[in-house]
């Protein structure tokens, strides 16, 4: 506990990974999220998890976080699934700029439609 929050952490080499939750959150779930995030990052960075590599691939790290949590709701904790989704999104970067903007617009429209249907 730290200032009313549950903090789960992991130290690897020169990096510190933290997952925080409210005092009513399950500590085991937070630990599962942290482990899934770390394992996905390890898969994407080919087990070369150090400060330099993480900074060079910060976009992949943010995509991992985006695949794991959305609006405070845990979506996925399985490292292989997270890494596969991030790898798919990273492959979209190879698309030419004119097509990428169309695909991004379609993805955004799809997300908005899904969110409006879930409300």
From TrEMBL:
**Protein's membrane topology:** Peripheral membrane protein
Give the species: Ceratopteris richardii (Triangle waterfern)
Q: Which UniProt keywords apply?
A: Cytoplasm, Cytoplasmic vesicle, ER-Golgi transport, Golgi apparatus, Membrane, Protein transport, Transport
Gene Ontology cellular-component annotations:
COPI vesicle coat; Golgi membrane
UniProt xrefs under InterPro entries: AP_mu_sigma_su, Coatomer_zeta, Longin-like_dom_sf
**Cross-referenced Gene3D superfamilies:** 3.30.450.60
Q: What is its main location?
A: cytoplasm
Q: Which residues form the AP complex mu/sigma subunit domain?
A: 4-91
Q: Name one GO biological process term.
A: intra-Golgi vesicle-mediated transport
What's the protein here called?
Coatomer subunit zeta
Please give the subunit comment from the record. Answer: Oligomeric complex that consists of at least the alpha, beta, beta', gamma, delta, epsilon and zeta subunits.
Q: What does this protein do?
A: The coatomer is a cytosolic protein complex that binds to dilysine motifs and reversibly associates with Golgi non-clathrin-coated vesicles, which further mediate biosynthetic protein transport from the ER, via the Golgi up to the trans Golgi network. Coatomer complex is required for budding from Golgi membranes, and is essential for the retrograde Golgi-to-ER transport of dilysine-tagged proteins. The zeta subunit may be involved in regulating the coat assembly and, hence, the rate of biosynthetic protein transport due to its association-dissociation properties with the coatomer complex.
| Subcellular location as annotated | Cytoplasm; Golgi apparatus membrane; Cytoplasmic vesicle, COPI-coated vesicle membrane
Which family does the UniProt entry place this protein in? Answer: Belongs to the adaptor complexes small subunit family.
* Membrane-crossing residue ranges in chain numbering: none
